[in-house]
Amino acid sequence: MSVPKEDPVRLLSAVLNRVDYRRINAAYSRLGRNEYPTRLLTKVWIYGYMRRMVHTRALEAACRENLKFMYLLEGHKAPDHNTLARFRSRVLRSEVGEDLLRQVVELLIQAGFVDMATVFIDGTKIEANASRYTFVWKKGTEKQREKLNAKVAEELPVLLDKAGMSYRLPEDMTIRHLKKIRKRLYARKQAEGIEFVHGTGKRKTPVQRAIETVDGWIEKNKRYTRDIHICGDRNSYCKTDHDATFMRMKEDHMRNGQLKPGYNVNVATVDGFIIGHYISADRSDMQALECVFKSINPSEKRRNMQIWRKTKRETGSRCRISLMR
Description:
- By secondary structure, this protein is α+β, with helices and mostly antiparallel strands.
- The chain is 52% helix and 11% strand.
- It has helices at residues 8-16, 22-26, 38-50, 56-65, 67-73, 81-92, 95-111, 138-162, 175-192, 206-231, 285-295, 301-315, and strands spanning 120-127, 135-137, 236-238, 245-247, 260-270, 273-280.
- Helix 1 (8-16) packs antiparallel against helix 3 (38-50).
């Protein structure tokens, strides 16, 4: 029994045989040797996605039992699920996957299946697989950090005075200054032989109270600074998925307009073929549109950027480019 000539697996194999795999081979270590050619593992994964097989163990079983997967392996034994998992996580999830897409688009253009004169862009928002109630808002965090700095400026002189220390406080108190104060407090503790006490019925010394208070301020300041850094240009992020931004979804099953962690997915298509894509945490399509143009085939990149700049110039700052919905 053989694979029929009109079967899609033959077309997939023929197309991927014309792809350049030098970038994939460069992703491997120079030490040792590869048990499987990268070309075969790429074919197996892409055909597995075509058959909606995303789990490595199911893909391993298919390579042992399915005739079409055996055809792609070209006589090699079925790869282990660990081999498949490492190949996907270390190779296909890097820029190599985008390079494969660009090469396939080049082949489609050369064969005359794709005409780049008209490009359709469709965008949608997809909810992230993360908790909906672990949000961190950038503006709220900045206000909390400002309140903390005001509290430090007000209470720190009193703590140092009770601990018998003098320190010239700067106008803008930072984590570095708090660490210096903590270091001097620990030096005073060691010089006076103070022992920390805990529990009921025990009285803490002013030095211990000052050290514990300053430690708490440092940890809070670090947390606020980290949250603001993770947000970056965004207004929020999810604690269980730092890349997700809280936004309004098109399908609101709760019907209350609740913000949910999600991603903005944009896909560029021509004649039914996907030629570019861009997944971001931007809430608006306008911010992601330029990146979609950049992701399209490199041979058309310059013309696409010219179209982008012309559209932006003609429509002005209030431009709204209506995408396909």
